[in-house]
Amino acid sequence: MAEEPQPQAAAAATEVVVAEKAPAEVEKKAEEPAAEAEAEEAAAVADDGGAVEATGSFKEESNLVADLPDPEKKALDEFKELIVAALAAGEFNLPPPPPPPKAKTEAAAEETKTEAPAKEEAKAEEPAKAEEPAKEEPKVEEPAKEEPKAEAAAEPAAEEAKAEVAAEAAAEEPAKEAPKAEEAKPAEPKTEDEAVVAAEEGTKTAEPVEEAAAAAAANTEQAPEAEAAAPEPVFIWGVPLVGDDERTDAVLLKFLRAREFKVKEAMAMLRSAVLWRKRFGIESLLEADLAFPELEKVVFYRGADREGHPVCYNVYGEFQDKEVYEKAFGDEEKRERFLKWRIQLLERGILSQLDFAPSGICSMVQVTDLKNSPPMLGKHRAVTRQAVALLQDNYPEFIAKKVFINVPWWYLAANKMMSPFLTQRTKSKFVFASQAKSPETLFRYIAPEQVPVQFGGLFKEDDPDFTTSDSVTELTIKASSKEAIEIPVTENSTIVWELRVLGWEVSHGAEFTPDAEGAYTVIVQKTRKVPANEEPIMKGSFKAGEAGKIVLTVSNAASKKKKLLYRSKVKSSAGESL
């Protein structure tokens, strides 16, 4: 068994999945003393070979606006209004890149030059103020001489800046007024009356400049408004955020439900997701060739559940292969590539398998196999956490059900500790099954013909005889009992079948019994005991010259019941399915 991670590490999530947002307090609480008691309880569940499903099974809500309660309709309308306003304000646009370092240095130097005269004048005032108490009252006039001087020094700098703004707006006259303001600077008043007159003149000189600058600024603001066209539409998963597209409501409802219909919080999440997609380069990533064939068995889509949701499998036991592990997580560059590959796989799955129609399929089922998964303290830990965070923040409500199979006891313990901090909505989507109960748990949500052989089902790639459209029959063989399966056969036809008993350790045989009275029974497969390590699926075929039936017998001598799966197909003499 791989090194057992601590419950806290397990709580950090071992799989890269589309996860529901969990509170940040989980990691802090994971170290509480209650962990030991929770671990014992979880171990007891695992020992019993049971499956654990969170309280209250999740039922997917409708995306039809007519089906929404009035408060949710109101929230959706408010959300749409906020989106329209945000589009008009450019809130979904990435901010411009920061200026280069050289430009920053020049701006700082210019600012220093502008501030220097003011600082020198301020320093010149300090000695004068310090001497002030020692001088006689009639000489108090000297500070008054200095004040207009400071004002005169400050005003030209301000007016010059305003003149530059006006010049950029193509207003020439304010630029001509700036030198006049500077010419007034050398005329230093020698009496208090002259100081007042100089200040008034400086104000009068500045007024035309200020008015012109204000007018230019107003014109600058009005020009874009007059010229601005409608904001460029924003799409997410191929769906526009505003407009008459019927899929828009389904996408917006995902963000609202993820934030419990708190409109402002949903808006913040949507804005953040759109900007992240632009920064991450989702559009170009979809076309990128990341060439990661080693991971095709780690994460893949296969079939659909009983309600039509696509199923994504996460199989982390594949990382036991050290070569595969190193190719995925060997260094920082490889880990970054893995993250992009995982996001790319998810995006392609969403675009190809979800339609976002009001009555369509808008979410998926995830199956996470924890058998032989790597310990949490490996090279993959950081990128796994990063991926989980990205998926939580940017892919809301994409999980209809999440089934964990082959769950070790320590993972159940970790889930127990996390459970109080998860919302009821999130908990209702999670199902945990020990190794003994994994296939049966999967069959509750996914038909056996859709479940890959490695997880207990009958689906095989490139099967020459059966497809997912050939349904599977499930039977339970009681302890110390025998089951006989009869399959009708027509004249001059060939019948094929396949059978699987989970865990085997049973006796199995097959024979053909003709319908004609007095005809002899033909033994097709001699009865034998099938060990646990037998091939997972047993196939058979028989070409019948006359009508009759194939009888498959399975005897269970064990003290526990067994799950049996089988299906059959009759072909004509030409080899075509009937």
Automatic annotation (TrEMBL):
According to the record, the residues making up region (Disordered) are 22-70, 91-229
Start and end residues of each CRAL-TRIO domain? 288-463
Q: Which family does it belong to?
A: Belongs to the patellin family.
Q: Which organism is it from?
A: Triticum urartu (Red wild einkorn)
Q: Which domain of life is it from?
A: Eukaryota
Where in the numbering of this chain does the GOLD domain appear? 469-570
Q: Name one GO molecular function term.
A: lipid binding
Q: Which UniProt keywords apply?
A: Cell cycle, Cell division, Cytoplasm, Lipid-binding, Membrane, Transport
- Mind telling me what this protein is named? Patellin-5
* Signal peptide from the UniProt entry: none
Output the Gene3D superfamilies linked to this UniProt entry. CRAL-TRIO lipid binding domain, GOLD domain, N-terminal domain of phosphatidylinositol transfer protein sec14p
Q: Can you say where in the cell this protein is located?
A: Cytoplasm; Membrane
Q: Per the record, where are the segments of Low complexity compositional bias?
A: 42-55, 211-229
GO annotation, cellular component aspect: cytoplasm; membrane
Residue stretches of biased makeup (Basic and acidic residues)? 22-32, 103-152, 173-193
Q: Which GO terms describe its biological process?
A: cell division
Q: Which InterPro entries match?
A: CRAL-TRIO_dom, CRAL-TRIO_dom_sf, CRAL/TRIO_N_dom, CRAL/TRIO_N_dom_sf, GOLD_dom, GOLD_dom_sf, PATL, PATL1-6_C_GOLD
